[in-house]
Amino acid sequence: MSLKHAMLVSLVERPASGYDLVRRFDRSVGYFWRASHQQIYRELPKLEAAEWVSAEAVAQTGKPDKRVYAITPQGRAALDTWLARPVGPEPVRESLMVKVRGAALLGVDAVLEEIKRHREVHADKLALFRQIEREDFGQGPGDDRKTRCRYLALRSGLLYHESWVSWCDEALALLSETPPSSDVA
Amino acid sequence: MSLKHAMLVSLVERPASGYDLVRRFDRSVGYFWRASHQQIYRELPKLEAAEWVSAEAVAQTGKPDKRVYAITPQGRAALDTWLARPVGPEPVRESLMVKVRGAALLGVDAVLEEIKRHREVHADKLALFRQIEREDFGQGPGDDRKTRCRYLALRSGLLYHESWVSWCDEALALLSETPPSSDVA
DNA sequence: ACGTTATATGCACCTTGTTGCATAGTCAAA
DNA sequence: TTTGACTATGCAACAAGGTGCATATAACGT
Q1: How far is B61 from chain A (nearest CA, A)?
Q2: CB-closest option in A98, A145, A146 to B9
Q3: DSSP symbol at B89
Q4: Which of A117, A157, B98, B116 is deepest in the core (most CB within 10 A)?
Q5: Is the per-residue pLDDT at B126 higher than 60?
Q6: Secondary element (H or E) of residue B17
């Protein structure tokens, strides 16, 4: 429900083309909301039809023309409404956990590999986020609201990947040492 | 992609009707994979068409008739294939974080309420999971594979909600004390 | 001349998930 | 006797997301 709103938030900062939005989603916004370029380009005409954004064609030299979108007052109002509307946490969907449940019944080997792979992915993200924390927030979370919000977004990613790495370690320890015959014991 | 497989895993334990599956998803499986009854009933004919499950009509006294589904050897094979196929972590999609990013630009008040609500939800889950941990795993994670997998699923939920509660506390502290004029300072 | 990378935009098809509605039998309580 | 709770199963419409494919300009290197 909130791809539209994530795009609006991005457009509040400054107007952008579809391509710009894709890149923003790949960078900052993408830490907490993934979207493919197909999805984004598909939403833009809808946002325009709802008059939440206005579009302007911009000719460029040396590059293809582009369409630059800006948020409208109606879009801004829609965003305010959405911000005020309480929404619960996203429902959890973890296929890794489905596999762990499967491991209980079907054997643990394939899942151990999978857990190792997940650990690696999360550890990489964690290292990246820790580096950003050192570089951008070595002096603390900052004083103004904007900086602190960026800091909190980063912290959210940090805590998330930290807890996953911890879990993977626990899981690898517990499942590796389990005697193979334990399921019939 | 893994609602089908989550259902198969559930059916490996024992055959079940659609209604049984719904209840299992609401209870144990639902800690890491949500599914509505509409979704589950929609998948069942597809699983049957793929011959991953077989169905049998069962007449009951005192209750409506039901269709009981059991996993087939082909279903079991499909499940093994899926377990062995590496899949990355689920993409992150956190509308709360989109709102926090919005708060940086549009004001913090609505989002503070939202964070408080999230904290409450996560704290409730956490309390529940801690209670289950005490009751079922007071003596530790257990010795056999099945128990340990249940334990790990629980741990995953625990760590997840713990990290959210921590984040909410950080966020409330940082955003409450931010001087309201800081965005123009 | 040829491939690669970056810019820039999209369509088509399919799967997955949500929302609202619909039906029907049994049982217990009010 | 009606109301509500539990069992049991679904359809229709829509929103959201994923996969694959398609196109075009222009800079840069080889």
Answers
A1: 32
A2: A98
A3: P
A4: B98
A5: yes
A6: strand B16-17
Nearest to A148 among B80, B97, B178 (CB): B178
- Do A93 and B33 make contact, defined as CB atoms within 8 angstroms? yes
CA dist list (Å): A60 to A67, A68, A118: 11, 12, 43
Q: What is the DSSP string of A126-160?
A: HHHHHHHHHHHHTT-S-SSHHHHHHHHHHHHHHHH
Q: Nearest by CB to B182, which of A9, A145, A162?
A: A145
CA distance A156 to chain B (A): 6
Residue A178 pLDDT: 66
pLDDT digits (tens, 9 = 90+) for A123-178: 999 999 999 999 999 999 989 999 999 999 999 999 999 999 999 999 999 999 86
Q: Which of B177, B99, B120, B158 is nearest to A156 (CA)?
A: B99
Residue B137, judged by CB atoms within 10 A of its CB (0-12, 13-18, 19+), counts as middle
pLDDT tens string A24-76: 999 888 889 999 999 999 999 999 999 999 999 998 887 888 999 999 999 99
Region B73-79: mean pLDDT is 95
Range 80-139, chain A: CB under 7 Å to any strand C atom: 91, 93
**Mean of per-residue pLDDT scores for chain A:** 92
Q: Which nucleotides of D are covered by protein (CB under 7 A)?
A: 7-12, 15-21, 24-27
Q: Tell me, in Å, how far CA of A28 is from C1' of D16? A: 22
**What pLDDT is stored for residue B179 in this prediction?**
65
Q: Are B141 and B151 in contact (CB under 8 A)?
A: yes
Distance (Å, rounded) from C-alpha A185 to C-alpha A179? 10
Cα distance between residue B33 and residue B20, in whole Å? 15
